[in-house]
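User: Run a structure prediction on this.
Assistant: Running it now.
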Amino acid sequence: MLAYAVPSDAEGSDASAFFHPTITSSDESIANGQYVSFQVKYTLDHGKIKAGDYVLVTVPDSLKDVSLAVSPQVFADKVDLGGGRYKLVFNENAANGISGSFSISAFGNNSSDQSKDATISVGSASKTVTVGPANNGGGVGLETRGVVKWGYKEKSGEGFTQDTAVTGIYNQDEDVKVTFAVEADPRQSQMWAAVITDVLPPELVLDPDSFEIWTETVDSSGTRHTGEQLSAAEVAGIISVSGGTITMDFGDRLDGSKFYRVYYSVTVPRGTKARIANSAKIDYTGQNGPSTETSTFTLKPQSGYSSSIGYKSVDKAEVGADPADQVVTYTITFENDQGFAVGDINLDDRLDSRVRYLDSYGSD
């Protein structure tokens, strides 16, 4: 294992001018206390960042329990500065850095009775999500969320492991069956005109014959009780599939006396190496009026970060007048510490105006 460090006397500078990020989030809106993840993809200006330089990350107090996962290939340290501010410190490999990504995860933290925006920033980029209010009308159970989605270990196949409440790991070297569970109104509040929309990412292959719906109840002590399984005709009256979109129309069934758990299975095809965020969104009218809540479960092959670095060398320092000495060979060496999707990495090599391109080839 390689370890990278920054000398204790290194004087670093803010490298945001040479660090070009874009930020996406697993959800645009979350319930109070719900998990959300942000993916930061970036490119680096080659040769512009030195060991000890850094980029700043800010996270508002409307998000809590913040965690950052960065690649040790280009980052030496992550420093908590307090007040929601973090410093990501580069190591000596950053000078040859090309591109990469890292993740930021947190939970909604809103004690008010109104929704609140939560904006994170990384260098020059920012991303805003909405955190729902602390009170959504209540219910008889201990659960506070209106919709919950996760990978159900007991019904999934070999090659899948749920490692946290909101993430699971799949074996990319085989076809992996994952069974999702989606709970509609597990807090047992009252929802009218309730519709769950679940859009499958393109990496997942749905088994259309796998849908099951069960009734559930929970008492005031938090004990859950499984009720009856709905018939195939009842399931067909609730669930419809169009392309990659699953619609679950519960209408006015969520009256507070019970809730529903939906199961369905997908396959993650062998060779898939992407982080796959799959969200279930419920739209409904509650005691406080129209509302929307989202729950996301993320499948991942390995870790939540990546990095690529590149080196360029030349086979001669001087070119003589002899025509036989006019051919110059440049070699670009590339390294990455995780898998990348096609198109994520692009190398751009600008030739000096005094040379003319002849040929190129790559290694296996």
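The longest helix spans residues 232-238.
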